[in-house]
Specification:
The chain has 389 residues and is α/β, with parallel strands linked by helices. It has 14 helices and 15 strands. It has a seven-stranded mixed beta sheet with strand order 1-9-8-5-4-2-3, sandwiched between helices. Bound molecules: pyridoxal-5'-phosphate.
Length: 389
């Protein structure tokens, strides 16, 4: 048996080197708006092979900055998958625009090209002024970006990829974040994500005008005047925000980013191990397996989410989760379909999205974090065997 602590579904991986970087930043001249912000952004551009990185306070503000950069406003509509974290939809609402929830594939939880086409036809039937699509690489598994991009081009829609789950992945030969198909990629550095800065986020883009707009917007939209008007002078033409990430956070980000490939391969190993162990439990449990390696060269696994047929099993998910927690294993559900949240049903009514509902009924995320030991993983598998047989 392993020690008494509860296994979380995800957690950070901080070492002595990270602590040294942060301590050095604390002793430097700049705690914020200093050189480490630029350094982190440069490193992030290099890692993701993107032209511009705008660091910001978290993954939610990253999404909001992308919405601001494209000038979303009241009366605009944005397509968002229903299976995602609340932030993906909420950021659209921050900008005053409306959310059109899109269904997902019932076995992967991802927005498919067909689901997107269906959502677009709903928008057309209702005469919605459609502006953009936000796709989500749920659990780290990339959506079919190339096909989504083709559809977006045809319909003149901006494509934003919420890549908060997928940092470290490689899609069609390029790192996630490269913006080969998307106008923006957004990232979160919350402790459960691929790398952490405590709280933190970033947007990547290859378009200079978007990058400049987001830089202004993350700092009150203060436009510095030409030097001959005085170095101290600035104009503000519209409202901006304080969405900055500090030098202290960026110090941690710089240090964490050096280790990301190592983090990703540890997660890959754990996922492979889980998949091999759960083979026996089919047909109750479906593991995340069907990946076309020619298209998806590497997955930056954020979550290990399995699909369990609780009806066949004759046990509720609630019950299984409780029993697992009694055994020291914390599981999680990613996610409750956002379109069923009271805020959104009040706004748009309760829509039926069958793929989202089917995925939601079966999904369960098991512990997955870089420092997880093989013995801990085996323990999780054993407990699930015992409770389901
Ligand atoms: C974590 C996450 C966010 C929000 O990130 P925060 O840093 O917590 O604001 C947005 N979208 C997805 C898909 C996420 O997983």
């Amino acid at each position: 048996m392993i020690d008494k602590k509860v296994l979380p579904y995800g957690r950070q991986d901080i070492d002595e080197e990270d602590i040294k970087y942060v301590a050095a930043a604390l002793g430097s001249d700049f705690l914020t708006t200093g050189p480490l912000v630029e350094k982190f952004e440069e490193d992030f551009c290099k890692y993701t092979n993107s032209k511009f990185t705008i660091s910001c306070s978290n993954g939610t503000s990253a999404l909001h900055l992308a919405c601001l950069a494209i000038g979303l406003k009241k009366g605009d509509w944005v397509i968002v998958p229903s299976i995602t974290f609340l932030a993906t939809a909420n950021a659209v609402r921050f900008s005053g625009a409306e959310v059109l929830f899109c269904d997902v594939d019932e076995s992967s939880g991802l927005m498919t090209p067909n689901a997107l086409r269906e959502a677009i036809s709903v928008a057309k039937r209702n005469n919605f002024r459609l502006k953009a699509v936000i796709s989500v690489h749920l659990t780290g598994k990339p959506v079919d970006l190339a096909s989504l991009k083709t559809i977006c081009d045809l319909e003149k829609l901006i494509l934003i990829s919420d890549s908060c789950h997928a940092l470290g992945g490689v899609y069609r030969g390029s790192p996630i974040g490269a913006c080969n198909y998307e106008d923006f990629n957004t990232f979160s550095f919350h402790p459960v994500k691929a790398i952490t800065t405590g709280e933190g986020g970033a947007v990547t883009t290859n378009k200079k005008e978007y990058a400049e707009k987001m830089k202004l917007m993350r700092s009150h939209n203060m436009e510095r005047k030409k030097p001959n008007n005085g170095w101290w002078a600035y104009d503000m033409h519209s409202l901006g925000y304080n969405y900055r990430m500090s030098d202290v956070q960026c110090a941690l980000g710089i240090s964490q980013l050096k280790k990301i490939d190592n983090f990703v391969s540890k997660r890959e190993t754990l996922v492979k191990f889980y998949n091999s162990k759960f083979g026996k439990l089919a047909p109750f449990i479906k593991t995340p397996k069907n990946i076309d390696r020619k298209v998806i060269n590497r997955v930056g696994w954020h979550l290990y989410s399995v699909l369990i047929d609780f009806d066949k099993l004759k046990m509720s998910r609630e019950n299984l989760m409780k029993k697992l927690l009694d055994k020291g294993i914390r599981t999680q559900v990613h996610y409750i379909p956002v379109h069923t949240q009271p805020y959104y049903t009040t706004r748009y009514g309760l829509k039926t999205l069958p793929g989202s509902n089917k995925y939601f009924r079966k999904t369960l995320s098991l512990p997955l974090f870089t420092q997880m030991k093989v013995a801990e993983l085996e323990y999780v598998v054993e407990q699930i065997y015992d409770l389901t047989s």
